[in-house]
Amino acid sequence: MKREERKRKDNIEKLTKEVETKKKIPKDVKEKINARVFENMIIAAIIMVYLVSLNFGMTNIPTDTYRTDLKVFSILLLIITIMIFEWGYKKDNESIWLHGVEVMVLGVITLYLIYLYSMYYSTYGTLILSIGIVYLIYYAIKIVIIQKRIEKEYMKSLNDIGEIIKK
């Protein structure tokens, strides 16, 4: 009786240790998470540099030149959007397509900035700062979602309830 009980406890301990080791996220999954997070952080940093440049340009560039620059930037961003969409379509990659949408939104915002510059010159810098904050919040939430989604996919791949029941 004691042997069976001890054997049962040993089996339970082995299963518990096995489950705990499987719950730990392996290095390759962590690297995948880090790569996606780093990619999004780089994009967010580029967008922030772009918005800060727009803010500095507002104070240092003559009005007519600044408006022309905004028009050129909006057209360039929309061309880049089309290229990213095509690339995402060829690769059949949802992540690339989402980056294209993000760049498209930035291009449309830049297009609206031309008119906002004329209408709200006194609060234009604050407006650009607000856009930057919204983008930062968006990317922070996106990074958390990416981490959770990849971890959830990994845990789902470990679903071995049938194997545990057999043991």
Give a structural overview.
The chain is mostly helical and 167 residues long. The chain has one domain (36-166). It has six helices and no strands. The protein is elongated. The mean pLDDT is 86.
Concise account of the structure shown:
This protein is mainly alpha-helical and 167 residues long. It is 90% helix and 0% strand.
Q: Largest sheet, if any? A: none
Shape: elongated
Q: Into which percent range does the helicity of residues fall?
A: over 70%
pLDDT averaged residue by residue: 86
The helix/strand class is: mainly alpha
Strand count: 0
Number of helices: 6
Low-pLDDT sequence parts = none
State Rg: 25 Å
- In whole angstroms, how far apart are the ends? 20 Å
Q: Return the domain count.
A: 1
Q: How do the helices and strands follow one another from N- to C-terminus?
A: HHHHHH
**Beta-strand percentage?**
under 5%
Write the layout of secondary structure elements.
Layout: H1 2-23, H2 27-60, H3 63-91, H4 94-119, H5 124-157, H6 161-166
Descriptive key words:
mainly alpha; 90% helix; elongated
